[in-house]
């Protein structure tokens, strides 16, 4: 079990500057400041590091897109608005090892030519906010932030900004709007943030885990980092494991680990709680398609399913899913897929910013239909209506929240339609549905 981000996570004092530096902290920064910014970008490209917030877009490529108009400031923004249901890895990292994020922010800002950078943190995470602010104060006092960092001539001011607790602000342009003091509504793209972001200036937005991973990339070198993992899924990945498992928590895995090993190994989830059977898994946070046990453990071709971007998406959404943010939700045989879907749909309806009609109206409509089915008043046509509505949301909104609301509905009906029909055809049995045989 190789650990790059969670290394020394349980060492007392690792959350302090002294503790972090005692165990090799800020060595990557010292190395990075001896390099040219373009050399760092090239090293991150060689590493194959992909965005760990959900999209999985190549980080180095994203950095290379940033515009460099003469005399115009650039900004690096960390997306710490972790709001995806089932995902809690970023807050864990910020709570226990804040300086790895700060070190990653300094290196990334230097690589991009940004002298003012921001960490946008979810408003409910005040505990982590105070930990981060204390760590930033320590870094300023040690000359790791501010003017002429470590005598390199590079200046950086770093600020933590609290959001107001909106899922939509996890979308990078809505985050930027909120950071500017406006309502957190997503922007129409183009222009992309790399050209016109914070206050119309070139901006790169990356997730907490992605920025933190820059530290081991620089320490090891991009080519060495790329040797970890499998194929285009290089490096390690933090997974938030929860649900009906014996050992919930945050795990750092090498990408390419078999899903079956992750679920059943004592090194990770430790199997299904109470010795029950596995029914389904949401592998990457609530917005990715749910898969039944037979498809999460093996692909439709019968090959072992791996914890990688490519393997989890094998088969498309018909028989596959996404790694997403790594929010790994395990459901045993007693789980009601319909009730679970209702909770997800209610969440997306509540969190819709309301800017796009398909999302604003569609999420509310789907919630009402699911409530009707759960209340014993459903009809078979309601299942078909749900399918129709999700199809009219997907791909028709400004930001991906529309897809985030539609994909779980489509996957639940695709793989568990019989369970929906059980609710509709036998409303008198709803409170005692035998989910094991449905």
Briefly say what this structure is:
The protein has 438 residues and is an alpha/beta fold. It has 18 helices and 11 strands. The chain has helices at 17-22, 27-32, 37-47, 59-64, 89-96, 98-112, 126-141, 172-179, 208-220, 222-225, 259-264, 293-297, 309-312, 316-319, 337-351, 357-374, 380-393, 401-425, and strands at residues 74-80, 114-121, 157-162, 203-207, 229-230, 233-234, 236-243, 249-254, 278-282, 291-292, 327-332.
Structural class: alpha/beta
CATH superfamily assignment of the largest domain?
NADH-ubiquinone oxidoreductase 51kDa subunit
Uncertain segments of ≥5 residues (pLDDT<50)? Answer: none
CATH topology of the largest domain: Rossmann fold
* Total of DSSP H or I helical runs spanning 4+ residues: 18
In which order are the strands of the major sheet placed?
8-7-11-9-10
Q: Provide the β-strand percentage band.
A: 5-15%
3D shape: globular
Q: Estimate the helix proportion, in percent.
A: 40-55%
Largest sheet: 5 strands, mixed
The top-level CATH class of the largest domain is Alpha Beta
The helix-strand sequence is: HHHHEHHEHEHEHHEEEEHEEHHHEHHHH
From the alpha carbons, calculate the radius of gyration and give it in angstroms.
22 Å
Supply the number of structural domains. 3
Q: What is the terminal separation in angstroms?
A: 38 Å
């Amino acid at each position: 079990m190789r650990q790059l981000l969670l290394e020394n996570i349980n060492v007392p004092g690792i959350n302090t500057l002294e503790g972090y530096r005692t165990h090799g902290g800020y060595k990557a920064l010292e190395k990075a400041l001896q390099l040219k910014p373009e050399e760092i970008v090239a090293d991150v490209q060689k590493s194959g590091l992909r965005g760990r917030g959900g999209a999985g877009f190549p980080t180095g490529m994203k950095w290379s897109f940033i515009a460099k108009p003469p005399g115009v400031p650039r900004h690096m923004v960390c997306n710490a608005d972790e709001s995806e249901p089932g995902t809690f890895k970023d807050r864990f990292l910020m709570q226990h090892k804040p300086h790895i994020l700060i070190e990653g922010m300094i290196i990334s800002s230097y690589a991009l030519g940004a002298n003012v950078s921001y960490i946008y943190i979810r408003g409910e995470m005040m505990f982590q906010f105070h930990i981060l602010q204390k760590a930033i104060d320590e870094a300023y006092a040690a000359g790791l932030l501010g003017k002429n960092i470590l005598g390199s001539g590079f200046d950086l001011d770093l600020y933590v900004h609290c959001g107001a607790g909106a899922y939509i602000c996890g979308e990078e342009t809505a985050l930027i709007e909120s950071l500017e003091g406006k309502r957190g509504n997503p922007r129409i793209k183009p222009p992309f943030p790399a050209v016109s972001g914070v206050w119309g200036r070139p901006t790169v937005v990356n997730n907490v885990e992605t920025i933190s991973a820059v530290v081991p990339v620089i320490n090891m070198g991009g080519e060495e980092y790329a040797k970890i993992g499998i194929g285009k899924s290089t490096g390690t990945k933090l997974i938030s494991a929860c649900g009906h498992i014996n050992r919930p928590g945050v795990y750092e895995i090498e990408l390419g680990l078999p899903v079956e090993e992750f679920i059943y190994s004592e090194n990770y989830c430790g199997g299904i709680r109470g010795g029950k059977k596995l029914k389904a898994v949401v592998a990457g946070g609530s917005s990715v398609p749910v898969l039944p046990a037979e498809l999460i453990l093996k692909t439709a071709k019968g090959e072992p399913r791996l914890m990688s971007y490519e393997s989890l998406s094998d088969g498309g959404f018909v028989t596959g899913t996404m790694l997403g943010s790594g929010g790994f939700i395990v459901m045993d045989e007693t789980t009601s897929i319909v009730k679970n879907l209702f909770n997800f749909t209610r969440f997306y309806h509540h969190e819709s910013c309301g800017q796009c009609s398909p999302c604003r109206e569609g999420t509310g409509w789907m919630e009402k239909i699911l409530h009707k089915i759960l209340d014993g008043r459903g009809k078979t046509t309601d299942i078909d209506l749900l399918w129709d509505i999700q199809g009219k949301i997907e791909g028709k909104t400004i930001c991906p929240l529309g897809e985030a609301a539609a994909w779980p509905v489509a996957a639940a009906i695709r793989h568990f339609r019989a369970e929906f029909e059980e609710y509709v055809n036998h409303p008198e049995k709803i409170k005692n549905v035998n989910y094991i045989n449905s």
